[in-house]
Amino acid sequence: MDRHDLADLSALRTRAASDVAWFWEAVLDDLDIEFYDPYDQIVDLSGGIERPAWCVNGSMNIVHNLLDKWQGTPAEDRAALRWEGEDGATRTLTYGELHQRVCRCANALRDLGLGRGDRIGLFMPMTPEIVIAFLAIAKIGGVLLPLFSGYGVGALVTRLQGAEADALFTADGFARRGRPIDMKETADEAVAQCPTVEHVIVHRHLGRDDTPMTTGRDRFWADFVAGHDPEARTARTGADDPVMVIYTSGTTGPPKGTVHTHCGFPIKGAQDMYHPMDLKPGETMYWMSDMGWMMGPWLVFGTLTVGATMVLYDGAPDHPDAGRLWRLVDDHEVTHLGVSPTLIRALKTHGDAPVRASDRSSLRAIGSTGSPWDPESWSWCFETVLDGEKPILNYSGGTEIAGGILCGNFLEPLKPAAFSGPVPGMDADVVDEDGTPVREEVGELVLRAPWIGMTRGFWGDDDRYHDAYWDRLDDVWVHGDFAAVDEDGLWYILGRSDDTINVAGKRLGPAEIEALLNAHGAVAESAAIGVPHDVKGSEIVAFVVLEPDYDETAALREELMQGVVDEMGKPLKPREIRFADALPKTRNAKVMRRVIRAAYLGEELGDTSSLEDPGTVDAIQEAR
Length: 624
Description:
One of its GO terms (molecular function) is ATP binding. Pfam families: ACAS_N, AMP-binding, AMP-binding_C. The chain is built from 19 helices and 29 strands. It has about 625 residues and is an alpha/beta fold. β3 (about 80-85) and β4 form a beta hairpin. The protein is globular. The N and C termini lie far apart (about 55 Å). The mean pLDDT is about 95.
């Protein structure tokens, strides 16, 4: 703001929205992004707002900006990656050490004949090797295909086949709560159905002696990289060439392969960290995620662009006890911790003692994403974890966005569960069904201008990309979230608009009902869905998971029901409230209301590949 003579954050947001080319050029300059060949034009909108071309005729490879340019500078000896396993083992790689390992892996990939444009899958736990492979793929000009480490065979096949993958990195397995979980057998079953996959590289993370290997196709990681030179050239790719295809599950149809480029996703992710989150060179970020969810690649691209340190933890955040996460913060001097509200709700049940047993003085902020907050959990996190002195950077966007639409920051006021406002460069608005802006009421979250991180489309399915975001309002991206802006200008996300519950003409997001239920001391978490009703259109059904010390009773059910009626009115009284043992969620803790609704109604479940625990579907079907 000082550099461009802007008085305040509002002025920055206004100029960014009105002059897209100026803003993103300023971002590239602020992040010190280096190009091999300069671009002729930062953005070309001649093809329409839906399909802009970025950094036209420029050439760059993002790995140059993540690793190469730091060599020979003081950053070379700075920690790039700190890793901890569930068993307490740790490893640290400096920018110089990471660079050497990435070069060896890149040379090994080239020896297999792999290179520019080849799609290479990553089906691995969160270990240093997944980051090394990730960067080596981009370094040779390949296209990353990140895959959730908990996927089953069908989910892997869909994505490997969809992207026509040429190779796959995997591991023998990983441990959760001390229990070994095999991966290679799952990978083998999937690859057997994917004839384009010619090479499989296996990291012996568990050290299994019985790992099945296919001669001629499979190689152990150690053998694969052995003997290769610690220097490798970085491919000179077009700035807007694909660097990653990452799949995101839709509410209908098969998963969507969002396409991202060298000058797209990495720049947007780094900008979000550098500007609203204020991550500085030398600081440390740990965002709980898997590489198969967007926050995994976001963490790698963003921290290394800024010159910061990433932390990876391969394990359960509450194992062997509820203090594990807070000890991680202390041991690795984490300045920015990323969590989900769902995790905080779970940790809150253990009380303040595990938190108070830690120091947490390194923390500057907590980031949150994945699901809406309830005010009680937000306040507990703010007061107990952050001592009421440091901000919660609420963050919401998506895989298609390459980061956030809305985010908290260090400059503007906070309210429980709120966002400070749009990330600079995101021309966001809240509108009614006709596209008219609304305030102090619920509407659709939309974007009115393009941004550098927007997906370039869906791999092999361009028509679906248009239908998903651009089909409802002319030249406006409709994101699919309910949102609101209050009287003080703070923003709120109220759940997916495709989860809309329309009761007798009144539209509401499920998060409104869930917040009321979660506020009750007996409730650990909840999910609300809309089910068909002949007269009203829809009725509300809620599923509640109780805290351990509470019993399922008719009196408690009636108390919860009355709480909703008191706040929402009798017309919005739920048809029923059911007690469940668990809720179906993705690995990054998003509640899958679509799956809950289908399970309740006895319909086809659709794509369930992103569920962390498929057994939670039974918990809905058996809810009392």
